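Today's session is about reading a structure prediction critically. Students often jump straight to the picture, but the first step is always the sequence itself: look for stretches that repeat, for charged clusters, for runs of hydrophobic residues. Only then move on to the predicted structure, which in these notes is written as discrete structure tokens rather than atom positions. Here is the chain we will use throughout the hour.
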Amino acid sequence: MAIYTRTGDLGNTSLATGQKVSKASAVVEFIGLMDEMNSVIGICVSNLESEPSVDFTEEIEVLESIQMDIFVVGAVAAGAKMKFNAGAQAANIEKTIDDYEKLLPKLTNFILPGGAASAAHFHHARTVVRRIERHAVALKSQSLMSFIPYLNRLSDLLFVMARFVNLKMKNPETIWKA
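Below is the predicted structure for this chain, in token form.
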């Protein structure tokens, strides 16, 4: 089976429902942003896998689970008949955040995104999630708004994981100074 179909050469694509829409449509933009986020999280996974001196097995498992969820969110947004309970998934993420925060020093200042390259990629992923969240809110689409709790918690988790990666790699956080 060829990867190319030529069906999108005129700027249209089909949703999971079979509906033809412009590739510039809001829903296709949302799906594309989710794909971008999945790729950025894939970079996070690759970076953690390439760290020879630190075991990030658990973090990689968390990220790969998120990547699976992202595919489902994109499919649901495209009209696929799949279930995704954003509230339940947000609650799962909250528990994971709580688990990581128990291991981190209390945050009393704003910090600059960065540290280890692996942690910096988490910060990048966090900002991509925030962009998707803003896009979904701007659309005022009830179906996309249902993903907001999940996206909101996901960006929080990526922030906490960036901090954890820096801690585990013994990289100090840089405090923001006004």
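Discussion point for the tutorial: The chain is about 60% helix and 5% strand.
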